[in-house]
Every structure is written in C-alpha cells, then in structure tokens.
Amino acid sequence: MIHTIRVHAEHEYDVVVGCDWQSILKDSIDSYTRVALVYSSAMRDHIKGFKPDNTEIHYFEVADGEGAKTSQSLQSLWNWLGAAGFTRSDAVVGIGGGTITDLAGFAAASWLRGIDWIAVPTTVAGMVDAAIGGKTGINSDYGKNLIGAFHSPQKVLIDTSWLTTLSDRDFAAGLAEVVKCGFIMDGKILDLVNGKGVAEIRGDASLVQDLITRSVAVKAHVVGSDFKESFGREVLNYGHTLGHAIEIHSKYSLRHGEAVSIGLIFAAELAGVKGLLDSKSIQLHKQILTSLGLPTTYPRDSWQHLYPLLALDKKSRGHQLRFVGLSAIGETLRIEDANESELAAAYERISS
Ligand SMILES: NC(=O)c1ccc[n+]([C@@H]2O[C@H](COP(=O)([O-])OP(=O)(O)OC[C@H]3O[C@@H](n4cnc5c(N)ncnc54)[C@H](O)[C@@H]3O)[C@@H](O)[C@H]2O)c1
Question: Could you check whether 3-165 and 168-350 share the same CATH topology?
C-alpha cells in the first residue's frame, strides 16, 4: 500500500512510501527535458534498465559511500552537467544511500543557483533520514557535511524493494534513526521494534513499511515546523552529539547509525545522571538497540579524546555544550548545563 506524506519546507513536496520507483519516477520527470541520474557503482545494474520515453537521461556514476561526498565528485558532476548543457528546466535524480542523495541534492542546489531534484533513497538511513528534510552537502577535510545547502527535493520516492539487497549491518544502522524517532516523538515505533532482531524485522515487509512511514512522518513534522534548524529541528539530533564524536574518533569505521546507537544510550544516561529520566526508559534504550545488534558501549579510555570532539557539535554555542535529552518517551528537552563530571559519569555508564 502506498502512503504519501507531505513535507512543508521552502516548498511543499511529497514523500511516497511503498511505490514502484521506476513507474513513479517516469511520470515525475516527464516535464523535464534533461535528467541527470546520479548513482554509485554499487547501484549500476539496477539503474541501467531505467529508460523513460520522453526525457533525455544522462547517467552520472560516482564513487560509492563517503567517497561520493567529496569536492572532486561534485566538480565532476558540475562538469558533466555543463557538458550536457543542463538548464534551469532540467533536473537531477539521486538514486542511492544518503551519500548519493546528499551529493545529488547539493549538485542540484548549486547548479545555476538551484535546479529541481528528486531523491530515490535505497537504504533505510536514506529513506527515513537523509533524503528528507532538504539538507544537502559534501564533506570537507575538516569534517563531515561542512559544505552544503538547504535545498528540498521535488519528491522522495521510497521503494522498499531496494532493501532486499541491503546488508544486515546497513539495515540495522538505519534502524537506529528509526528508534530515535520512536524515542523523540512516536512511542508506537518502540512497541513495534521492542524484542525484535533485524532478521525478524526485515522479514516482515508490512512492519518495515510501517516503521519507515512513521519515521518519515516524524521527520516531516519536525522539518515542517523548523526547516533551518533552530531548537525545533535539533530534536532530530537526539543521540547525535556523542554519536558524531564517535564517528570522527572511530575514523568512520562505524556506520553513522552505529555511532548514533551509542550516542542514544549516552544521551539517556546523561538525562539519568541529571535526574531527568527514569531508569526504566534508560533500560528501554539499551534493550531495543541491543536486540537490533547495534553497539551500545565504547571503550572507557576514549573519553579523553571524545570530550574535546563534543565541542565541534553544531548545537554548541560558544563554550557551552548542548544536548537533546528526554524527560520521558516523546518528551524532548535541551540539556545545556551538563558539567564535565556529569558528562564523565554518563560516559562511565556506557564504557566498555
Ligand atoms: N542530509 C541529511 O539530512 C542526512 C541525514 C542523515 C545522514 N546523512 C548522510 O547519509 C550518509 C549515510 O547514508 P547511508 O547509510 O545510506 O550510507 P551510504 O550511502 O554510504 O550507503 C551505505 C552502503 O550501502 C550500499 N547500498 C545502498 N543501497 C543499497 C541497496 N539497496 N542494496 C545494497 N547496498 C546498497 C551503498 O553502496 C553503500 O556502500 C552519510 O554521509 C550521512 O552524512 C544525511
């Protein structure tokens, strides 16, 4: 069954969950003269068969994973768009995980100061997070996602059949963002995943679709109320403050969602240290993320390296660290007054 969720951003657009991407994409690009399909080598075989009747398609293959989100990739895309004569009435389509939709969206944002683009996410993380919300960008030598633009797609087409080839590891990593949506806003998500492992979840197509639809609805709701990220949108960063530090510290050997999983437990423990969140809710974080096979601890002796990295978080203001916390399931708050010993105490509880 198809679910359509409307996102209210700088323009309104639909996220279509449960569709056949090829047929909807053909209809969606009918009015453009030229379309650039941006994909990585990993998706090549799936893209080849896509041949619409009326639109001129240009196939632009880029590196896989974070290798796509480089200034060199973007430069290549600009050159290809230029050589193919892309105008303001043409469009870009990004087909792939979050790395590809981030790159394709930013190429669309920057070409001729902004042309239309459509996202076809193929990972759980892309479907519930990266493709929705209008943040596009690439990495810099100084950190992830430092160069970018807010530029919402015209449409997001979610075809869950992509997920059959996704590794269990990437599937579980994407579920960390789904679980986050459960904790910050939609507690029903937690009921749906609690006690289940990845195999059980991915084996139940209607459950997968329900989880994706609910998570998209959470993101659409938050983005609609705060497109350019003041505190409203910051709730989506629940678990991400330590998560980002862990990503950097692990030199990206952990998936984003794996680092966020540890960060979610840390955020819950921090709220516990500050007397804001009860132990049952903290335990629920550990229980759900453990049964998904996601990491929930990090080495004790890494704290001295992680603590300085926390200051790089986008939510920090001056010397003040800010965390998104919970006072109950679905009740978010801002923690701005955590001192060094409280942070160390919370970290001690997630240390291995
Ligand atoms: N713009 C945003 O708001 C936002 C939000 C969250 C994450 N992100 C970004 O998204 C990226 C992470 O996204 P990701 O986890 O999708 O990573 P990814 O794009 O690197 O994909 C992970 C791996 O899965 C493979 N893959 C993709 N689809 C597949 C499929 N259907 N079957 C088999 N393999 C497949 C890819 O080739 C890749 O090797 C990060 O760069 C992150 O910064 C952006």
Answer: no
Indicate the annotated binding residues for NAD(+). 64-69, 122-123, 135, 144
326 within 8 A of 184, measured Cβ to Cβ: yes
Residues 6+ apart with CB under 8 A from 123: 96, 97, 98, 162, 163, 166, 170, 174
pLDDT for 179: 98
**pLDDT tens digits, 87-121:** 999 999 999 999 999 999 999 999 999 999 999 99
Ligand 1 geometric centre to CA of 317 (Å): 29
Domains of the chain by residue range: 3-165, 168-350
Ligand 1 pocket list (CB less than 6 A): 40, 42, 64-66, 69, 96-100, 102, 122-123, 125-126, 129-130, 133, 135, 144-145, 162, 165-166, 170, 256
Topology (CATH level 3) of domain 168-350: Dehydroquinate synthase-like, alpha domain (1.20.1090)
Least confident of 46-50, 120-124, 278-282: 46-50
Query: Residue 318 has what pLDDT?
Result: 57
Q: Hey, what CATH topology would domain 3-165 get?
A: Rossmann fold (3.40.50)
Tell me how far the alpha carbon of residue 255 lies from the centroid of ligand 1, in angstroms.
9
- pLDDT tens-digit series, residues 201-219: 999 999 999 999 999 999 9
